[in-house]
């Protein structure tokens, strides 16, 4: 098996995480490592038990099967996640653990040189701009990197021979909430004179300061210059663009793998490795071009795509809850998978066994089964692996890892509150992952929770089934038919998939009821329903939508099933009349409309056309 690295990184869609992933991918492929990024979405609910299941992402890998671990502790949004991870690793394995930017001191840490970065930025203003009235907005002082950056500012001012006014320092939050307060505070620090520069410990605080300064009628950089740190996309697209510091993320990726290899080779490695950022001088300090032009189309397109993804993510769970069984639910999710920008996804489910260790339930079983591959059109030879058990030590079936090039994967837990069902492994592309991945995970979790409830409460499952079916004929009712049509159209909305709506109306039902009674009329309806069921088979779905009205949706890939349906139905009806001993003939009129799913016509317009054709046939029959 190829060498492997496990990475623990929360909120995988964020900007820093995306850049780190892409640079790590490139470096790992050069050195022939498979990489698995174990990610969660943080404590975004108020349910503590839900957060505990998110933390249990650390219990998926069997660490002895990996050559090393890279941890990005400050990307977690769950209290205690880092300690939970490191305690799990150290209790089961002695592989090297490398922490990026922060981390416990019992790991190999790659630290961003916050002190040097802040020092260099401050000296840019004192030496290059010759400023003396300089203010500083720090991060929260409980954070080590915030303290280091503040100390770099203080020492740079001292070395430049400038006394720091205690009021010129404002403690921020590394976010945007306190920027307005800081701006109003700073403009008063030097009396009647404005500050010459405001240095902020990160871009988000700097941007919020800039916004408030503009609201106050203060020009940037003509009246006050401003800078940040971390080089976010928001800062580069701001006007004027934000002077900042770019983290050497590619250097962090390569250094992390260097450390893992050196430790495994028995070489001595220092516990802390410092990397220095590069100053990015732009318009907000006056060092960028005066008439700078920024093309916002890329950012606008990404924001638009993310907006659509978020909107669709709110609907996908509703769609899967309307599906009746596991296959239907998974096919529905499959229809949305392309929005993630991932290559493939592997749904891996825990087996039924219950494992306990030290009186605690182990959330992930030793063996799992591969239940689904997204998207189904891109499946290679996974059919032979479906529903077969494989060892959790390989994360996915080992046959899938036998590839020419090393793989790069992300792993997300599938759980609903305290119920853990398994995990989704995604083969990552060279593009960023969209936020829609969280919608996919939530839909999977909701699907398996729904299936679990239905299996435990058979009566409820039967009520749900009856709610969508006609009690007389056993066919779907209008509600169930509409739901199935919606599912089919959603799954195939971007494909040239053929479909045919068939409108059916039984002839002379009123005459049968009036002559032979309503019970006999019911029998006649059931005969028509049986004929429809027999002819449709597995090529489509059918429903009784009114007293003597039926609707059929042919979904087959085979065009013959569409073209010959009415002829086959009439033949079946004629044969049925010869077999049943009835004092009347069974007859129904049919109308059909053929189309493709990627066309603009709505299902309702297709049904109306089929209805029109059916009534034309009905008039012909009655005139005979």
Topology:
Elements: E1 3-8, H1 15-30, E2 33-38, H2 48-55, E3 68-71, H3 81-92, E4 97-100, E5 108-112, H4 114-128, E6 134-138, H5 144-159, E7 169-171, H6 179-186, E8 197-200, H7 203-215, E9 225-227, H8 233-237, E10 244-246, H9 249-264, E11 272-275, E12 278-280, H10 297-321, H11 326-336, E13 344-350, E14 356-357, E15 360-361, E16 367-374, E17 389-391, H12 398-401, E18 408-416, E19 419-427, H13 436-456, H14 458-466, H15 478-491, E20 498-506, H16 509-516, H17 518-536, E21 540-544, E22 549-554, H18 559-563, H19 565-579, E23 588-596, H20 603-623
Parallel strand pairs: 1-2, 1-3, 2-18, 3-4, 4-5, 5-11, 6-7, 6-8, 8-9
Antiparallel strand pairs: 10-12, 13-16, 13-19, 14-15, 16-17, 18-19, 20-22, 20-23, 21-22
Helix pairs in contact: 1-9, 4-5, 6-7, 10-11, 10-13, 11-13, 11-15, 13-14, 16-17, 17-19
What is the radius of gyration computed over CA atoms, rounded to a whole number of angstroms? 32 Å
The proportion of residues forming helix, as a percent range, comes to 40-55%
What's the number of helices?
A: 20
Structural class estimated from helices and strands: alpha/beta
Largest sheet: 11 strands, mixed
Spatially, the strands of the biggest sheet line up as: 11-5-4-3-1-2-18-19-13-16-17
Unreliable stretches (pLDDT < 50, length at least 5) are: none
Separation of termini?
75 Å
| Shape by Cα distribution | elongated
| Total beta strand runs | 23
Mean pLDDT figure: 89
Strand content: 15-25%
Mind explaining what this structure looks like?
The protein is of the alpha/beta class and 624 residues long. It is built from 20 helices and 23 strands. α4 (114-128) packs parallel to α5 (144-159).
